[in-house]
Amino acid sequence: MTLFNLLDILGIISFAISGSLVAMRKKFDPFGVYIIAFATSVGGGTLRDVLIGAQPVFWMKNTSVIFFITGSYVFAIFFRKFLKYLSKSLFLFDTIGLGLYTIMGTEIGLKANFHPIIIVSIATMTASFGGVIRDLLCNEVPVIFRKEIYAMASVFGSLAFLILHFFNFNESVLYISTSLIVITIRLVAVKFHLSIPTFYIKKK
Amino acid sequence: MTLFNLLDILGIISFAISGSLVAMRKKFDPFGVYIIAFATSVGGGTLRDVLIGAQPVFWMKNTSVIFFITGSYVFAIFFRKFLKYLSKSLFLFDTIGLGLYTIMGTEIGLKANFHPIIIVSIATMTASFGGVIRDLLCNEVPVIFRKEIYAMASVFGSLAFLILHFFNFNESVLYISTSLIVITIRLVAVKFHLSIPTFYIKKK
Amino acid sequence: MTLFNLLDILGIISFAISGSLVAMRKKFDPFGVYIIAFATSVGGGTLRDVLIGAQPVFWMKNTSVIFFITGSYVFAIFFRKFLKYLSKSLFLFDTIGLGLYTIMGTEIGLKANFHPIIIVSIATMTASFGGVIRDLLCNEVPVIFRKEIYAMASVFGSLAFLILHFFNFNESVLYISTSLIVITIRLVAVKFHLSIPTFYIKKK
What we know:
homotrimer, mainly alpha, 0% strand, globular
C-alpha cells in the first residue's frame, strides 16, 4: 500500500464519520444516515469523475471504498454519544479530509493535463463538494457558502501543490506541504474566527 | 414487446403520476409539474446512466419514454381530483414502480459486470433516487431518509434477484420473485408502520 | 470571433451577473457568490454535457469561460449598489441569456442528431437549468416551477429554430428569430403578468 492509498482511505473515513454525525443530528433513519455518509465521503470525487468523464465513477471500480465507508458509518453509530463530546476531533477529521482530497483532486487533474485553473477547480470540488451535496440532501444552505474559510484553504493547497510540482519536488514534499497549508489555513481561520469579508445587497 | 418492456413502461407511468400529484400539491405551475413528473420518473435511471457512463442517458435514446411520461402527466392533471381520493392506488403505483425499477437496475448492473455490492447500489439508486431528486427540486428533505422502509425493500429485492440469478433461475422467476419481495416488504412496512430503529444525536 | 462566440460570451456574462446578485442578496460570502455565479452561468450547459456524454464539460476545455465569469463576478461585486437599482437591466440580462443559451442548446442537439423532442429538451435545459441549480444551491424552490412564463419561452424559441432550420434558412435568420421569439415571449409575459394556468391539489 502506497502513501497515497493510505491518505485516500483516511480522507474517506474522515468524511464518512463527519457525514454520519450530521445526519444523526438531523434524525435521519439508518438508511438516510448511510446515504449522507456515502454522499459526504464520495460526493466531491463523484462529481469530479462525472464532469471530467472518468466513468464508471471511482467507487464503482474500487469496492474497498464502500467497505471503509460502511465501517466508518457503523463506528459513528456505535460511538455517537462519545463522538458528540468530541467536536474538536470531528473538526480535525473534516480538516484532514479536506487536505487529503485536495491532494487527490490535484493529482487527477494533473494526470489529465488540464489547465492549472481547471486543476485547482477540480481539487476544490473534490475536497469541498461532498459537504455541499450533504447539505443539499439535508435541505440546508451549504455551509461553505456562508461561513469561514473552508474551500479557500483547498484553493491555496492546490495552488501550492501545482507550484511545487512545477519545480519538480518529489511526491512526499508535495503531499506534506499541501496538507500542512490546507490544515494550517483552516485551523487559523477557525481559531481566530477569520472569514472572507462579505459584500451583500440589502433587501428592501 | 417483451415482458421487460411492459414492466419498464408501467414503472415510468407509476412514477410520473406520483410525481405529478406531489408537484400539484406544491402548487407548481404546469411546466413545474411536468419537470417534477419527468424527474421522478427518469431521475434514478438518469443518475445511474451518468455514474456508470452510459450516455446519452436512456430517455434520450428512446423517445417513447417521453411520450409515456407526457401521457401520464396529462392524465394526472385531468383526473387530479379523482386521484386525490385514491391515496391507496397512488401508494400502489409507487410501490409497483419501486419493484420494477429495482429489477431494471439490477439487470443493467449485471450486464455491466459490476461487483454485487455495486449492482445492489445501482438497483437501489435506479429505484429510489427519482424520489430523492423530486424532493430536492421541491425543496424538501428527501422522505426516504426519514420515513418507513422504502429503499431497503429495493435492497432486498435486488439481493434476491442476484441470488436467484446465481442459481440460474429463468427471467420470469427472477422478475416475479423480486417484484413480490419488494412489494411485500413495502406493504408490510406500511401496514404495520414498521421502520428501521433510528439512532440519533440530540442537539444541545 | 464568430457571431456565435459573441452570443455565447454575452450569455455567460448575463447569467454570471444575475447569479452574483442573487447570492449577494442571500448574504453568501465571496466564495459562495462565486460558486453561485459559476453555477448559474454554466450549470445548464454542464448538465447538458453530462447527460449527452460530452465530457470533459465545455468549460473545462475552454478556460475563457472562467475568465468571463470571474470578470462578471468582480464587476457585480463592485457595482452591486448601482445594479440594485437596475432591476430592469437585470431582467434584461437574464432574458438575453435565456435566448442565447436556447440557441446554443438547439445547435448542440442538432449536431448530435437527436430526435427533435430531445433537442428542444436539451435547449430548454441549457437555458433554464442554470437558474434551477442556482435556486437549489440557495435552498429555495426553483422559481421557474412557480412563476410566469420562463422556460416555455425557451421551448418555443427552440421549436422555431428547428422549423426554420428544416426550411434551410441561414444561421443569422435562425439566431435572430429565436432570440426575438424568446425575448418577446418573456417581455410580454412579464409586462402583462401572464402565467400558465395552474392545476393544483388542495391539501386537506
